[in-house]
Every structure is written in C-alpha cells, then in structure tokens.
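Sequence only, no structure available. Ideas?
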Amino acid sequence: MKKILQKTSIALSLAALMSSSVFAQGRFDNVEVKAQAIGGSVHMLVGAGGNIGVSAGPDGLLIVDDQYADLAEKIATTLADISKEQTRYVINTHFHGDHTGSNAFFSKHKKATIFAHDNVRVRLSAGEETDPAMLPVVTYDKGVKFHMNGETVHVFHLANAHTDGDSAVWFEQPDILHTGDLFFKDWFPFIDLNSGGSVTGYITAVETLLGMIDGGTKVIPGHGALANKGDYERFLNMIKQTYAYVQAKKAAGMSEDDVVKAGLEEKWKSWSWNFITEERWIRTLYK
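Reply:
I predicted one. Tokens follow.
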C-alpha cells in the first residue's frame, strides 16, 4: 500500500512537468514538505515534484531544485527549520517545472542566485509566460564547483539523457549524489524525447554516475526514496533489459502498437506507474 501511495503522489507531481500553472489553486494545500538529514551538511526535502537536496551550514543554504511555485513558501519554512541562514544558491538539475517552479520565489524573496546548464536557461526562456526572475543567472557548459559549509559540491552536465540540460550534483565529503531525473527509484523513468533526451544518452549518463560512486554513497533520486548504488544498478539493469527487448521486437518487424500489445516481461510490471505506464515506457523505448 505504501508503494501505491508513493506512485500516486509522484504521478500527481509529474502530471504537469512543463508548468505548475495548470494546477488549480489549492491543489497543493495538503502537501507537506518534509526534511531528512542524510550526512554532513546535506538534507533531502520531499514534497511534490522532484526531491530537493540541501547543503545547510554557516555559509548559508544551497539547494538543488525547488519543486513547484505553489510550494515555495512551504519549502522556505522547512528550510528555516533546518537553518536560519540565507538561501544563497539554487541549482536546477534540468528545466522541468517540478524542479524549477520556485526559482522566482527564491530569486526575488531570498536573493538566491540560480545556477543551471546553458540549455536550462534557453528552454525556460522559451516559455511565453516565463517570469525573468526564474531564469538561471549563472549558466555553464560542463559544470561548476562550490566550496561551502566545509564541503565541496561538484555540479556536472550529462548530455542528452533525461533532457539536453541535465546536471547531477555530488556532495564530496559526505559522499551524497543528487541525480536529478536521471534516477526514478523503482519506476520507469520519464525520458523527454522532445527536449533533447534519449534512451541511449540516458543509459550512458547513468553508467557515468554509477562509475563515480561506491556502495557507501547515498543517492538522492529525482523521484522516490533515498537510495544506494545497488538501487541505482537495478534501475540501470531494468532500462538495458527492457530496451534490448523492445529493440529486438522492432528489428523483427513488429510495429510499435504490436509491441505495446505484446507487453514487457512479467518481471517488469511493478515498475509501471501512473505517469510512465508500461505502454508509455515501451513507446519511449521503441522510438
């Protein structure tokens, strides 16, 4: 039952990845933003939307992603419970609205500087109703490094994976990796093929990240519970096996609809959820 509730919650969070404005007012009234201390200066915040990573200490707060605009005040309240220091920096792991929705709030009201890959600013700027305050002020091509709260925070770009502007964040001293949406724990991932994402690029990105960590690394996924390397390896294995399965069917001459009708092997059924169903995952793999 707990897993079903988690999947339903994530589905609601991702139902409007490109914009939080489609949610009716009051949709998030009952959402709680909860914090979990993980190690060193790092905390993980869970609410609705992408998981938030936090470095909190005497140098101020650095946050990784900021969920939906409607949750900005709740996020700020939870951050204040962790530390009364200023929120100085926001890192966007990509441009989707469930990870960037509170950018404008933190920029305007907390005077935070927003960092992201070059393509995140490009895609956010393309929105017709984009508030300029939500745009990243500092952008990078390969990555950037922060030195604060006695720790080193590495931010680096992974090309054409979930989108064309993905970043992952590694908190070096406590050995904690925030993957952004390059990890959906125990679920089929969303790969945004219309925004520069690709299945092969996603696989390469996950392999790259797995090569950087060990069994002691704590992993904050874009969506889902706190994880470890074994969880991430299992996720990669699922993607590789289902991709090979679908591509073999395609090579044998089966149409996309025929593969959907045939379905995946029974062992992958539990990975389906409200937003990325088995059918949608098959269609992603087929394309």
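The chain has nine helices and twelve strands.
Hope that gets you unstuck.
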